[in-house]
Design goal:
Layout lengths: L6 H19 L10 E7 L5 E7 L4 H25 L7 E6 L2 H16 L3
Parallel strand pairs: 2-3
Antiparallel strand pairs: 1-2
Length: 117
């Protein structure tokens, strides 16, 4: 029997979809630029949400992007409240997801070890 798809996971997926659209279309902050939301984790009481994102920018731009996202978090939260019907809209905490960079690095190491480079 398949594992039940929990309500918190459904809400996290909905927040991820809505934030992707909002960041692309509504946020006018030039620091935010092009990011990809890779995942969302919501606490059981829906009071906090960790938003994992990635970008292909350099290290200095990553700091500016994080500042821009933190600055826009209040606006994004208010927009989410009109799009998602929840009693409590979670506080948004943006966290840079390094898994893509780590994956590329490991792939390069494997290619180098096998002699494909």
């Amino acid at each position: 029997m398949p594992k039940d798809y929990s309500r918190t996971q459904r809400i996290a997926d909905q927040i991820q979809r809505e934030l992707a659209v909002l960041i692309e279309t509504e946020v006018k902050d030039p620091r935010v630029g092009r990011i990809t939301i890779t995942g969302v984790e919501v606490t059981r009481d829906y009071s906090h949400a960790k938003i994992y994102y990635t970008t292909l920018s350099n290290k200095e731009d990553k700091v500016a992007i994080e500042e821009g996202l933190q600055h826009a978090s209040g606006f994004l939260r208010s927009q989410l409240s009109s799009r998602i019907r929840l009693r409590v809209i979670p506080q948004l905490h943006f966290i840079y997801d390094e898994s893509v960079e780590r994956g590329l690095y490991l792939s390069q190491l494997i290619d180098k070890a096998t002699g494909k480079i």
